[in-house]
């Protein structure tokens, strides 16, 4: 399963409109840093970047210089000029999706990827929405269509498969280093 991480529209105006935007961004950064260490291709899209700005700089840093960024106006990331071809050139047949907004751009990307006979895994904790209820309905529809919904950590450990993986300590360190706002609330109780 040649997989790639696709980061969809992780731009400041969108993150600011999402109730848990900071947590979603943190999980996107974890996904990017983990994918980079595991040697997965990382691609990103930006919705109308001339108007809405670029991908979050910290996320770009986590993804590394090899992250190809595609501007788009279509809601599906696969509507970005050259993106589908870039995936095919890399032999990608499974997409790991993260970003915003879950019920719109992520949903339409997943639908199109499934129609292209690609496998799809939604990194559920790295996808945000203005209305979480809308996202839950979109995720349920995508599950019925054949997509998987899993947390970033589960996917990273699944990709390694074994604690003897040469990158295990690096990935474990990344996971431990991410501060989850829920962890902070629990400590404060």
What does it look like?
With 189 residues, this protein is of the alpha/beta class. The chain has one domain: Isochorismatase-like (Rossmann fold, 3-Layer(aba) Sandwich). The chain is 50% helix and 20% strand. The protein has helices at residues 12-17, 21-37, 49-52, 57-63, 83-89, 102-115, 132-145, 152-160, 168-177, 181-187; strands at 3-8, 42-47, 68-72, 94-100, 119-128, 148-150. Helix 7 links the parallel strand 5 and strand 6. The protein starts with a strand and ends with a helix.
Which key features would you list for this structure?
10 helices, 50% helix, 189 residues, disordered C terminus
How are the SSEs placed, and which strands pair?
Elements: E1 3-8, H1 12-17, H2 21-37, E2 42-47, H3 49-52, H4 57-63, E3 68-72, H5 83-89, E4 94-100, H6 102-115, E5 119-128, H7 132-145, E6 148-150, H8 152-160, H9 168-177, H10 181-187
Parallel strand pairs: 1-2, 1-4, 2-3, 4-5, 5-6
């Amino acid at each position: 399963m040649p997989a790639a991480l696709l980061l969809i529209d992780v731009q400041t105006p969108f993150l600011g409109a999402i109730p848990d935007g900071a947590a979603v961004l943190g999980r996107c950064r974890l996904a990017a840093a983990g994918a980079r260490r595991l040697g997965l291709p990382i691609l990103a899209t930006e919705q109308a970047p001339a108007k809405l700005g670029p991908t979050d700089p910290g996320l770009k840093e986590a993804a590394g210089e090899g992250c190809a960024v595609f501007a788009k106006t279509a809601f599906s990331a696969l509507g970005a000029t050259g993106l589908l071809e870039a995936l095919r050139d890399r032999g990608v047949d499974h997409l790991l999706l993260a970003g915003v907004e879950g019920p719109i751009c992520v949903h339409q990307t997943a639908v199109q990827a499934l129609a292209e006979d690609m496998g799809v895994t939604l990194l559920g904790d790295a996808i945000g929405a203005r209305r979480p209820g809308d996202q839950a309905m979109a995720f349920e529809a995508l599950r019925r269509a054949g997509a998987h919904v899993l947390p970033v950590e589960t996917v990273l450990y699944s990709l390694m498969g074994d604690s003897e993986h040469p990158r295990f300590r690096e990935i474990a360190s990344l996971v431990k280093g991410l501060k989850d706002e829920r962890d902070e609330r629990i400590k404060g109780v």
